[in-house]
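EI: anyone free to look at a 250-residue chain?
SC: sure, send it
EI:
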Amino acid sequence: MNALVSIITPTFNSAKYIAETIQSVQNQTYSNWEMIIVDDASSDETITVIEKVQENDSRIILVRQKKNVGPAITRNTGIQKASGKFMTFLDADDIWFEDFIENSIKTIQETGISFVFSSYRRANEELEFVYSDFIVPQNVTYTDILKTNSISCLTAFLDIEALGKKEMPIIHKRQDMGLWLKYLKEIPFAYGIQEPKAIYRIRKNSLSRKKSDLIKYQWQFYREVEKLSVFQSLYYLIHWAIRGFLKYRN
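SC: here you go
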């Protein structure tokens, strides 16, 4: 199989890391891909870095937002422009191992499951592996994701020819979780690859690592996006809080 893979990468002031992220895509053993980089009105040198790499690689597509609109709309812009059989996501500071795409497609072919995701290594900003690897479950269902989101944006891999295109909900956080749940309402489960195939860079001041408002956002997600009852929301929130603590304890 040599089907096209669409890679969605949102950027915002990512000049420090984006070249390394692009390089990890260019190093893939599978070469038929398009990398759709959607810049959310960066004010640093992000555009300059991307355009320099673009000069020698026509597979890299740059889309520039006129104003800052946030990660949900930015990723959805990329989804709308994706033309591949497969769709996957890679944030502008994360890295794939060179066989990530090849292994994801192989897993879809072998299992017949159209939504797969991988384990990953966790590093600090300098790519030092000071955290333990995150090993994903072999499969996750809709209710599993409500308890804890085991599918990271940097390893989710979907056959959208089979599943169709869906977009992320327009919310401040948990956009990726919202998208996974849309698919998991229609399929029994997503398949998890135990071997780490990517590196997730944990940045000190990243949006996803600020804890002060996380419980509020999670509660709002259950109630307003998934339309769960108060009892259901409380049940899943307790699971989410416990598992979140365990996930980042080392």
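EI: The mean pLDDT is 93.
SC: 👍
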